[in-house]
Amino acid sequence: MINVSNPMFDVIKSDLAELDEGLTGAVASSVELVTEVGTHLVSAGGKRIRPALCLLAAHGGPDFDLKRVLPLAEALELIHTASLVHDDVLDEADTRRGQATANAKWNNQVAILSGDYIFARAFGLIADSTYGEHVSRRLAELVCNLSVGEIIQNHTVYQAVKDLDNYYGRIQKKTADFLEICCELGGLVGGMPEVDTRKLAEYGHCIGMAFQITDDLLDILQTSEQIGKPAGNDIRQGIVTLPVIHALNVSPNAAELERIVTDPEMTDEMVDRALAIVKATDGIELAKQQADDYLERARAVLPASLPADIREAFLMVTDFIGDRDF
Amino acid sequence: MINVSNPMFDVIKSDLAELDEGLTGAVASSVELVTEVGTHLVSAGGKRIRPALCLLAAHGGPDFDLKRVLPLAEALELIHTASLVHDDVLDEADTRRGQATANAKWNNQVAILSGDYIFARAFGLIADSTYGEHVSRRLAELVCNLSVGEIIQNHTVYQAVKDLDNYYGRIQKKTADFLEICCELGGLVGGMPEVDTRKLAEYGHCIGMAFQITDDLLDILQTSEQIGKPAGNDIRQGIVTLPVIHALNVSPNAAELERIVTDPEMTDEMVDRALAIVKATDGIELAKQQADDYLERARAVLPASLPADIREAFLMVTDFIGDRDF
């Protein structure tokens, strides 16, 4: 996954250091346990991709002011963190990024309530910073979309929905909308002209789609050693992604594949067989091509007004997603 | 519990009807399941005490405008609803107000995510209504406090904390802060002078403290038939309230009481014995007196500028809490 030590974020390295300090301050509470949980969560090795995009976008505008944009960047990371905390409760996950999850380290109650607290702290930071109602509205929409996206996903597990639009809608709500908003609001607070902010928002959408398609693809292609979880984890959890949906539509073994992916009791052997059926189609190539198309659109849509070093950083992000194999 | 058909809310009866419509609209989503869950939750027999206080307060100001204040009143009820949905997951509750909880009717995943969605819809309503940053900030603080209050409560179960300040702090975060904010923000949006808004906020704080002390008292005094759950439910869940804390400090049987309330495996007989020890002290009288004192302060602090019918409604709320025996 994207790492902050990656050279693409060199240009905002000192911003990200301040961000980390701000995040720790943002979750601090007069109640020790709340501070402890919050600090554990925001310092548990986050990739900071969302605040980094926001900061880069703000740098692209004429009014860049780190103090002004930091609370927004922090709120975006807090929303992401809160949503992961609740996801980990839903998935009964014990670890994330090599650290114990809040539900494992404390319990489900602490995790659910800490997630609520962190969501609310994000909205508090935004209110304190008087960015105006548009920013608050977009962040509220974001949290609604994240929740709705998860509800749809949970409601359709083991159902083998063969409609690709359903898949694209799902990953848009889960990832692309979020990265879009990071770019859009960063540009806005940086004082970027509206036409350029819109372009940067489209860039965010495109890299978000590419990122999620790649992520889903790696779940099929990687070995346990590479990603720290068994390959075919999505299939096992009843979630069908682009290559699987494609195979359900075109594979000569589509019926067998459908029987497997709709079986909540599937064995490891069945998962392996499903992976083999998927890999025998051109679904892998199709997904790679889709991700590449999105990345090409992302590069093309970058506003011409961006300073050279910021433009370069945005381009490095697209290269990174394209080359990602871990 | 307080019911909207109670005469104290007659003066805002038509407002509350519009509120109900607004709530249904507020949770509507393009995803059918989300709308279904949201509608179930907002129409599941809520008492509407929070939006009612907000509406009454707004009526008290010179700029009352129903269309203007409704989204705020709706947001307050949505925050309350979302927080109950998450509480029911934490408590593994099957029913609330005689209706199936979201976790029982659907599952924990749907309940947690729907709670997140409803929280976010509340902040979305506020952003759309451009009340200014103060309102958003207060609501964010409210959600933080609700979460922190629950975290403290969950973290200290079966611990028999004998400090009354701990108890007061807990019920303030759980109930009094919320009713205070309803009154304060209603007054603000109704254009009430700041000095009167502050008085009304104090009224809200006082009735909130009285309400929760009474609620906790009824849990000790009532029979199963009266409240639909066994008496001593708080003790059983490891939560000590005012009369119990008092008994832990003054009863000759304090040591026995402490052994019981700190035992997560306590039997029904032990709960009955604990109730008997508590009832043998003057803790019941003390709690009643405390609640009465808060109600007297609430009545005294009502601003003189209130229209007669609104003042009357606020006074009826205090009488109602004082007379509450169900």
Task: Give a verbal description of the structure.
With 326 residues, chain A is an all-alpha fold. The first copy, chain A, has a single domain (7-323), classed as Farnesyl Diphosphate Synthase, CATH 1.10.600. Helix content of chain A is 73%, strand content 1%. The first copy, chain A, contains 16 helices and 2 strands. Chain A has helices at 13-27, 32-42, 49-59, 66-91, 102-105, 108-128, 133-155, 164-189, 194-221, 224-227, 233-236, 242-250, 254-261, 268-279, 283-301, 308-323, and strands at 95-96, 99-100. In chain A, strands 1-2 form a two-stranded antiparallel ribbon. Chain A is globular, with a radius of gyration of 20 Å. Chains A and B meet through helix 2, helix 4, helix 6 and helix 7 of A and helix 2, helix 4, helix 6 and helix 7 of B.
Count every beta strand of chain A, where a strand is a DSSP E run of 2 or more residues: 2
Largest sheet of chain A: 2 strands, antiparallel
- The total tally of domains of chain A equals 1
Instruction: Quickly count the helices of chain A.
Output: 16
Helix/strand class of chain A: mainly alpha
Q: According to CATH, what is the topology of chain A?
A: Farnesyl Diphosphate Synthase
SSE topology string of chain A: HHHHEEHHHHHHHHHHHH
Low-confidence stretches of chain A: none
The fraction of residues assigned to DSSP E strands of chain A is: under 5%
Q: What's the CATH class of chain A, please?
A: Mainly Alpha
* pLDDT averaged over residues of chain A: 92
Q: What would you call the quaternary organization?
A: homodimer
**Chains forming the largest contact:** A-B, 45 and 45 residues
